[in-house]
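Hey, can you fold this one?
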Amino acid sequence: MSVQETLKQRLVGMARAEGFAAARVCRPDAVPDVPGRLAEFLSKGRHGQMHWMERRVELRGNPAELWPEARSVIMLAEAYTPDHDPLADLERRERGVISVYARGRDYHDVVKKRLKRVARWLVEEADCEVKVFVDTAPVPEKALGQAAGLGWQGKHTNLLSRDLGNWFFLGVICTTAEIAPDAPETDHCGSCRRCLDICPTDAFPAPYKLDARLCISYLTIEHDGPVDEALRPKLGNRIYGCDDCLAVCPWNKFAHAAREARYDAKDDLDAPRLGELARLDDQAFRRKFAGSPIKRSGRNRFVRNVLYAIGNSGDASLLAVARDLADDADPAVADAARWAARVIGESCGSPQQPVS
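Sure. Predicted structure:
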């Protein structure tokens, strides 16, 4: 066994000891098709308000440019598989549905600490330099994950694996060390299109293509201001993210159980009551979501989502909550409140009262 192979074998063992479900290696220049795919995505405006994607395009499209000295990219998978069917929560219309990954501790913090421990070990063993990334730099993680053999980008554009399903986070370690690369993974979606067919907003213009402007995860997390009225009913009771396309993937029968207890849903974030969430002011919102990825969305965007869910609930008991927020200081929240009050009133046959 070569020195590079020996180092990789020990590296994989270290990563697994730290709790990662899998670790694979590729070269920084192993994703030559990314620049073209990214250019197409941006040229069609499918990134919506995510204008940060337009910046540093040359780095985002070519990992080798991000750190020219790097010789290897280590891709690591961290399982967060739910212990229940997330789609079942969509039937509880008076409660909000939060994406599985956001119900517990912020994965950025948890994964990065583990990555740093693995990276420090590598520095000591290989006398090299390292840089670690967790969804916070212009790095095409999913493409690199496929190039490293960790999985493949499915028709829903997320990375999935024959061994892990698609419930996993990605961590990246770039290093100047020469480590034997793995073979890239090939596509195993076949004729299946469950992820495409279940999407409530038809956000996939074609297999392997995503229009973020229609994606519920984008609309509830990234999109600022009012959501198009035609899309609001399709949000259902999803108030932060969407797991539909992930949840129906048949490869999840091989998913690993999550080993990190901090990803377990907090009791108050497992199908929380919409009426309670709508009443959060900025201070209460920050306090409730301290240490959660939800905090970054801000109170206004989150309460806006909650009000759309209230409108979709058809629950007359929530009508007063919507009316109370009709004069909220944030225009998007006030607009969502007026819409929710109108929709509930119409669905319940209640006499319309003017909402300022």
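The chain has a mean pLDDT of 92. Let me know if you want another pass with a different chain boundary.
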